[in-house]
Structure formats: structure tokens, C-alpha cells
Amino acid sequence: MTVEEDSPKAANRRKKVGFTESPLSPTPSADSETKRVYGIVFVILLVDLLAFTCILPLFPALFDYYGSHGEKDSTYSALQNFVTRIQLSLGIAPSPKSNSVLFGGILGSLFSFLQFVASPIVGALSDVYGRKPILVITTIGIAISYLVWSFSTTFTLFVIARIIGGISKGNISLGTAIVTDVSTPGTRGKGMAMVGIAFSLGFIIGPMIGAGFAAYSRRNGVVDIFLYPALFSLLLQILDLLLVVKFLPETLATTKRVSLLRDRHDRSQSVVYRS
């Protein structure tokens, strides 16, 4: 470590960005601890994204599967009627191919919308209760969605699994927050790059795994084509949960958390003083 890094000026700068107030050690080993957290976050996000993206190539086959049972499923029938009205309004002749595209678009939009709604709430809760407890809860929620998916012999169960997954999908934003917690201005770029690399690898390797499951199902005449990828994603998410619980430290110091009780007290005090 250089003299400049040991100087009071450097210490004040680290304190200014909150690094010394983190639960992580403020000793000279802080650099190695930061790199360790980067590595843990990278693995956690990569495993999570592999589980998430392996379903993407399976959408057409899944819709064909549920379409063959669609008459028995009210959710599928309702969505089919909605898709048919869209096709007729746009002058598109209904066909299995266009149905798959529109079904995939609607479910993908539903998942993204739920994630859009849930992410700020997850982030706010992590500011109050800490990153690790909320990450554990969201990881459990995603695992539950894969468990429901593994039993989704009907389209309704599949939609429920996607809804649970969308509401619980806050791992990317939490991973970014964790990187920010342990970073200084000089190291933050490296941490964010690790998040981006995990994201890219997940979207490259995950669909390849999903395509392998699809090819295996066709070649071997597997009826419930969702079962193996769902169990695979569930196992990955359980692994993710173990990684979070066992290896990820809490990175948001108690002194830097937002206190709901304190905020309410401050607001009540301001009302008393104004009156």
C-alpha cells in the first residue's frame, strides 16, 4: 500500500464515500474483501441468469404443449381469444406461429412489468433491512416460481409461476446495490463491469442450455417438456440461495440504513413543531 493510500486524506476520502462505515473490514484487507464480494456477486448473478434464460428457447414448444390442452384451461382460452382479436384487428391471419409470437410477447411483457413494479420496492426494503435478507427472500421467491413451473401441467399454473418470478426478480438491482456499497469511485467501474459480464454470459449460455433441453425432449419424445428445464432452474436457484446465505456478507452498514420508525418520528416531530 502506498503512502498516499495510508494518508489521512485517503482515509477521509474513503470515509466520505462510506467505505469505512461498511460492515466489511476497514483494514488494509478491505481491497481483497471488496474483490471477494465482487466475485460472489458475479457468481450469484450468473447462476440466477442461467436459470432465468434457459426458458427462452422453450417458449414456442411450451405454447404448443399448452395449446394441445388449451380447451381445458380457461386462462389459455381467454388469452387465445384476446390474441385472436389482436390478430383480426391488425389484419393478421391467425396461425400457430403468430400465436406463439404474441403469447410470448404478452407473457414476456407481463414478467417485465411485474419486475418493473417490484424492483423499486425491493430496493427500498433493502435500504431499510439490509441487502442480504431481502436478497434471500427474493431468491426464495424465484425458487418457488420454478417449483410451481415444474408442476405446471396447465397454462394457468405456468402463468402463476411467471407472476411469482416477476414479482421476486430483484436480484440484478440488489447485486448492483451491493457492488455500490463496497466500492469507491475508483473501483466502482470494475464492479459494474462484473455485473455486466455476468448478465452477458447468462444470456449467452442460458438459452443454449434451454435449446439443449428442447432438442432432448423432441428426440426422446418427452411429454412434459417443461419438467427438466424447470427442475434444472430450481436446482440452480437453490444453489444461488446457498451461495447468498453462506458466502455473501451484509454490505449495508446499520448506520446507513433508512429507519422507518425514525422517519415516522421525525415527521411527527415536524408536525408538532409546526402546530
Q: What's this entry about, in short?
A:
By secondary structure, this protein is mostly helical. 77% of the residues lie in helices and 0% in strands.
Structural notes for this entry:
The model is unreliable at about 1-5 and about 10-25 (pLDDT under 50). The chain has helices spanning about 5, 10-15, 30-55, 60-65, 75-90, 95-130, 130-150, 155-170, 170-180, 190-220, 225-245, 260-275. With about 280 residues, it is mostly helical. The protein is about 75% helix and about 0% strand.
Descriptors for this entry?
single chain, 275 residues, 12 helices, 77% helix, 0% strand, elongated
Structural class: mainly alpha
The percentage helix is over 70%
- DSSP strand (E) fraction? under 5%
Oligomeric state, counting identical vs distinct chains: single chain
Total number of β-strand segments? 0
- Biggest sheet record: none
* Shape assignment: elongated
What ranges have pLDDT less than 50 throughout 5 or more consecutive residues? 1-7, 9-23
Overall mean pLDDT stands at 83
